Amino acid sequence: MNWLDIGALADIPAQGARVVKTAHGCVAVFRTADDRVFAMDDRCPHKGGPLSEGIVHGTQVTCPLHNWVFDLTTGLAQGADAGGVATHPARVEGGRILLDAALLARRAAA
Amino acid sequence: MSQRLVVIGAGMASGRVLEHLFEDAPGAFEVTLFNGEARGNYNRIMLSPVLSGEKSYAQIVTHDDAWYAAHNVDCRFGEPVVKIDRERRIVYSNAGGVPYDKLLIATGSAPFIIPVPGHKLPGVVTYRDLDDTNAMIAAARPGARAVVIGGGLLGLEAAAGLALRGMEVVVIHLMGHPMERQLDPAAGYLLQKALEAKGITIHCKGATKAILGTDRAEAVLLEDGTVYGADIVVMAVGIRPETRLANDAHLEVGRGIVVTDQMVTSDPDILAVGECVEHDKQLFGLVAPLYDQARVVAATLLANPAAFRPVQTATKLKVTGCDLFSAGDFADAPDREDIVFRDPARGVYKRLVLKDNRLIGAVLYGDTADGQWFFGLIKDATDITDMRETLIFGPAYQGGASVNPMAAVAALPPEAEICGCNGVCKGKIVTAISSGAVTLDAVRALTKASSSCGSCTGLVEQVMAVTLGDAFAKSAAQPMCKCCDHTHEDVRRLIRSKALKSIPAVMQELGWKTAGGCHSCRPALNYYLLADWPLEYRDDRQSRFVNERNHANIQKDGTYSVVPRMWGGLTTPNELRAIADAADKYNVPMVKVTGGQRIDLLGVRKEDLPAMWADLNEAGMVSGHAYSKGLRTVKTCVGTEFCRFGTQDSTGLGVKLEKHLWGSWTPHKVKMGVSGCPRNCAEATCKDVGVICVDSGYQISVAGAAGMEVKETEFLAATASEAECIAIITAFVQLYRESARYLDRPWKWVAKVGLDWVKTQVVDDLATRAALVERFEVSQSVYRKDPWAEHAKPSERPNWGMLADLTLEAAE
């Protein structure tokens, strides 16, 4: 897999998220309380809410518009809500956040 | 064939004996009841609220005429007994003799009078019965002066009652601190401070030399030469058992009438009960052991085996606003250890005295919720080795199987106080339950327990669970969210009592079931922590809902709206120009005037927020907190400045209120209004707090609503002074901050705690009001700041944009 350095772990607050703009839309990069990172599309399937602005709890995030809850590891909506968000491989190495370069490649291929 | 029982004295102890007798063996005795006072049995403990005017005599009657009639009691009230003829077994009053098979002496005690010169002057009263109380009430004119001699339980209650009636009160106390028999010096100090805050002067180490005056008491002279003027002098230095009848009848009398374990005197047909008895060389003055004695007396009369065993007693002071509890022995000694907890800011002091791994004494001041539990540990001599570390935090922290809270509740005596706000004891709740109140709401409706501050709700439910067993369905106590088992109220209480100062600490100590909580509990916890520990806790942005985290309101398309503050709805040409410039510069698609008298800039991109705020700051504007659970707006009309109807400067008051309260976080949003006259152009009467100006001043009403619910405000207070108006509103907001559940608007909170309680806290009780205002100010020293200015700093701005833009790299 091709990894892309998109910034420092310290740029994202613990239990928070920042947005990366990509060719196929915005991707939210989440940092959990225990410093793991997860990336998923920044768009709630319900009404398009910015998931990056949600409250991060454990490995879940709650959409700020209508409180849908998604699992960061699978992208699946929790509880009674059905649906999901696309997730993207992400990891931390030496304090840097690495994203799957496929997010970039798609644009190049297009 | 029923026996003839004659009872001398209709006090609380003999009253309890009769209750037991009529319950256990109806008709077994034909009862004649003599009483020197011209009335039957009433709750003497509640004389203090009668004195202060918080209760009426009718409310403290235990047995009324109907009760005596129903049990065929021959009542001889106002008819003192003058002689007991033991030989012929006849009791004499001045009206004649009544024969008995069994006689019960319950003559109680008489107040101790220090025989200083002047002690017989009119105006010198004791504090023992309703007549004394009425004498004090009659003398209590606002501004008149009272001197209370004696700083014990009774003296302080008398002092507080007289102070509540508007008198200037001085307490003369012989010892170094008040209530020295129940309190150690530290708690005594806190108590003295609290009483002095109520305007009561406490003169410790003061020995009374004489009461001065010619026709009536005019002043009190102390040994040290101090003279206090007095329109009334209350002697409350102590009591001694009333034993004259027993003495005359040649019963064995020591300090009191000597009784056996069965409560029988030296004459087998004569029993005695209450404050007049001496058992095992001990006298008794508190109600709990007297009730134990009463049970034994009834058993002995019915020839059932029973024995009186004195137990430790606990003391609670019944002075509104001074919460203290003491039990057991707390003198210093070499073989004892102390556990002390102090929270000076809250005026909380707790001290536990241990000996051989057992609790032998407890003094609680300021927070007495766990008093009964500690008392239980003392009485049962429980080995506390396993819970020593968390002991002082009370039963809530004794996890697992080591302490069963239900057992603790089951073990509480009927007179144990459950609801401190409304003075409801366990027995009353149990009675309500057995008369059919099986839901919390029903118990609340019948007893008022847990209907004020709500902090005892858990206890009330435990009483219900113990009483009803499986039939009890716990209804109202919804946990905060799925992450934990505690209610909002419990979490708040535990955050305070356990001094939890971070979200991880709360989650760890209170057993959160999820790793990081959820979107429901995290903002609530963040709020509770910053409200309770304003100086120590740092706001956790990541536990805030997006609007509060970003200090702007998110819109459906992910853009934000920006609302600068316009104090009291006032603006200037310069501000309007700056707003117009910002709207142009950041391509704001919609500019709208809000209902709260300010201007909303809608459709701003997140990355533009800090720069826009900096521009608005530049023109002197700050965040309007249009997004926060905090003070939103204070809507005003033009008042006396321009309006021909205005009665006060409503605009000015609105500006002052807004400048005073802005920035504070509250459980939910708070909107206010100030109208300059009853025409009410500012629509103040549907706000959380509304002020209507009138010729005579300001009428404050609260708990309105104009959202999904529409509700008119309810009257809280009227005042002629603008400063007092602001103080009352500040105290109201702080009380709301301290006791409401997160996301309850003030109208919901007031409905739960009751407007009466709110009134006592923020209107009537000046010391409580002052303390609330002070705590609000402590919090505002941190939060009365513009969050926009902070986030608009150049160093902060990168955080508001994208972390990376991969589309640019792809294009290269």
UniProtKB/TrEMBL annotation, chain A:
Gene3D superfamilies for the chain: Rieske [2Fe-2S] iron-sulphur domain
Key words, A-Z: 2Fe-2S, Iron, Iron-sulfur, Metal-binding, Nitrate assimilation, Oxidoreductase
Keyword check for Hydrolase: no
GO biological process: nitrate assimilation
Occurrences of domain Rieske (ranges): 4-99
Superkingdom of the source species: Bacteria
Pfam family, one: Rieske
One of the record's GO molecular function terms: metal ion binding
SUPFAM superfamilies, A to Z: ISP domain
NCBIfam families with a match to the protein in the record: nirD_assim_sml (TIGR02378)
Protein name: Nitrite reductase small subunit NirD
UniProtKB/TrEMBL annotation, chain B:
Pfam families associated with the record: Fer2_BFD (PF04324), NIR_SIR (PF01077), NIR_SIR_ferr (PF03460), Pyr_redox_2 (PF07992), Rubredoxin_C (PF18267)
BFD-like [2Fe-2S]-binding domain sequence ranges: 418-465, 480-529
NCBIfam families referenced in this protein's UniProt entry, alphabetically: nitri_red_nirB
Entry annotated with the keyword Oxidoreductase: yes
Protein name: NAD(P)/FAD-dependent oxidoreductase
Cofactor info, note text: Binds 1 [4Fe-4S] cluster per subunit.
Keywords: 2Fe-2S, 4Fe-4S, FAD, Flavoprotein, Heme, Iron, Iron-sulfur, Metal-binding, Nitrate assimilation, Oxidoreductase
Cofactor(s) required, per the database record: [2Fe-2S] cluster; FAD; [4Fe-4S] cluster; siroheme
Pathway(s) of this molecule: Nitrogen metabolism; nitrate reduction (assimilation)
Sample GO molecular function, one term: flavin adenine dinucleotide binding
Xref: Gene3D superfamilies: 3.30.390.30, BFD-like [2Fe-2S]-binding domain, FAD/NAD(P)-binding domain, Sulfite Reductase Hemoprotein, domain 1, Sulfite Reductase Hemoprotein,Domain 2
Positions annotated to bind [4Fe-4S] cluster: C637, C643, C677, C681
Binding-site positions, siroheme: C681
Record domain Nitrite/sulphite reductase 4Fe-4S: where: 629-766
Nitrite/Sulfite reductase ferredoxin-like domain sequence ranges: 555-619
An annotated GO BP: nitrate assimilation
Residues of the FAD/NAD(P)-binding domain: 4-281
Coiled coil residues, start to end: none
Family of this protein: Belongs to the nitrite and sulfite reductase 4Fe-4S domain family.
Domain NADH-rubredoxin oxidoreductase C-terminal: 314-380
